[in-house]
Amino acid sequence: MILKSNYQKSIGLILGLSLLLLLMCGSLVFGYADTNLKTVYDAFTSFNGTNEHIIVYEVRLPRALIGATVGASLALAGAIMQALTKNPLASPSVFGINAGAGFFIVVAVTFFYVNSYQGFTLIAFAGAAFSAFIVYFVGSFGREGLTPMKLTLAGAAMAALFSSLTQGLLVVNEAALDQVLFWLAGSIQGRKLESLFTVLPYILPAIIISLILSQKINVLTMGEDVAKGLGQRTGFVKLTGALLVIILGGGAVAVSGPIAFIGIVIPHFARFIVGNDYRWIFPYCVVLGGSLLVFADILARYIVMPEEIPVGVMTAIIGTPFFIYIARRGFNQS
């Protein structure tokens, strides 16, 4: 189903953006509280302080905006990682970046009593960077050097290590457990717009730079020797891509906690639609990643209503079969 012409891809992108906006509207309407489109419209045009208007304006609006931003960030980070590592399973969750960021935040909460959004953001960036460095270092050991298989194994090992350390800290600190347990499951419930505004100055430029970098990544995927022959500074491109992954992944974790599988599923789906041109894969990842997370969040409200399950559980349910399918196909980049 690969779209051939730029015109078709442009129309597809517009449709994807329309889907994202439609789902965000649905996020404002659907939930345990009985609301409809008129209620949502009135909440923005003639706010009167009723429970329905407060729910729309102060609860559901932040969830819709945060869901779209986090989904876009994770999908784009996964696409960059898959391009740079030539590994179809690469994503912030599989390579331990989410787990590393989450572990650093739990350490900060447990020992340093950090509770500000700005603090969470900076600490998540540090944790993501540390995890990425460790995975790259461990994956480079051996006679063959860095390979997709070794990267995946190193990432899985680091993710398991950071997750175990996180659980160990929470066992000995019940106060921290109460504060971060729901966050660690991956959730955008109860998040305020303040948390989004804290990370947006980092995430938005990262998205824009990623779109600009897409042409250079296209060249790099042809092979490092070819890219160097065409005059590209491959080291600069790789370093920039790594920094973008840290910002996008760390920023997403700071807001919503570690949410898995968005970074795996969406890049492959985008590649299925537009082929291997990263000038199109990246913008498709932005709109489709946001759409998937907002859709998963809507479903999470209804599974065990009136209670809600964390959206990270929903993305795991959606993404696990796809992960198994990709793993069974092997490590040949599509």
TrEMBL record:
Keyword hit for Transmembrane helix: yes
Residue stretches spanning the membrane: 64-83, 95-114, 120-139, 151-173, 193-214, 281-303, 309-327
InterPro entries, A to Z: ABC_BtuC-like (IPR037294), ABC_transptr_permease_BtuC (IPR000522)
Location of the protein in the cell: Cell membrane
Keywords: Cell membrane, Membrane, Transmembrane, Transmembrane helix, Transport
Major localization class: membrane
Coiled coil (residue ranges): none
Keyword Ion transport among UniProt keywords: no
PANTHER family reported in the protein's UniProt record: FERRIC ENTEROBACTIN TRANSPORT SYSTEM PERMEASE PROTEIN, SIDEROPHORE TRANSPORT SYSTEM PERMEASE PROTEIN YFIZ-RELATED
Similarity comment: Belongs to the binding-protein-dependent transport system permease family. FecCD subfamily.
Protein name, UniProt field: Iron ABC transporter permease
UniProt organism field: Metabacillus halosaccharovorans
Lineage per the UniProt record: Bacteria, Bacillati, Bacillota, Bacilli, Bacillales
